[in-house]
Amino acid sequence: MIPHLFGIEVREYQRAIAKSALESNTLVVLPTGLGKTIIALLVAVERLSMFPDDKVVVLAPTRPLVLQHARFFKEHLAGNSVSSATLTGESPPKPCRVAQVPRLGCDGLPVQGMWRDLSRRAT
Fold first, then answer.
1. Which residue would you say has higher pLDDT here, 39 or 104?
2. Is the Cβ–Cβ distance between 95 and 122 less than 8 Å?
3. What CA–CA distance (Å, rounded) separates 25 from 8?
4. Which of 37, 43, 59, 97 is the 20 to 30 A CA-CA neighbour of 12?
5. Which residues of 39-70 are buried (b: 16+ CB within 10 A; e: fewer)?
6. Gyration radius of the chain over CA positions
7. pTM of the full predicted structure?
8. Which residues, in sequence order, are CB contacts of 20 under 8 Å at separation 6+?
9. DSSP code of 84?
């Protein structure tokens, strides 16, 4: 079941795409402004409710987009028992194991920095 998100007008096509993404691997290609981030949030919320011990990682190609996703997810996940971390590769990684990254594994990080950050975190 696709969740209802307070403060967001979720369109029917976004719900349909999110449902498809929950059922199988999905690549969402939509023009700017048609709600790819909303779809990602719908999928993340549903996955975390289905698998409460799992994590969600959101990737973005640039630091500004990472920070935009981080703000959006934090704003619309407020009140949920979800913690998050934002990794951009610009700040040194804190020493911890990958297993210690919060449930919303990363709000996002540039793909190039992902492996570097995670490899530094893994021990």
1. 39
2. no
3. 25
4. 59
5. bbbbbbbbebeeeeeebbebebeebeebeebb
6. 14
7. 0.71
8. 26
9. B
- Extract long-range pairs of 58-62: CB within 8 Å, 24+ residues apart: 58/104, 58/106, 58/107, 58/108, 59/106, 59/108, 59/109, 59/110, 59/111, 59/114, 60/108, 60/109, 60/110, 61/110, 61/111, 62/110
Residue 17: alpha-carbon gap to chain centroid:
16
Long-range contact pairs involving 100-105 (C-beta distance under 8 Å, separation at least 24) = 101/55, 102/55, 103/48, 103/52, 103/54, 103/55, 103/56, 104/44, 104/48, 104/55, 104/56, 104/58, 104/73, 104/77, 105/55, 105/56, 105/57
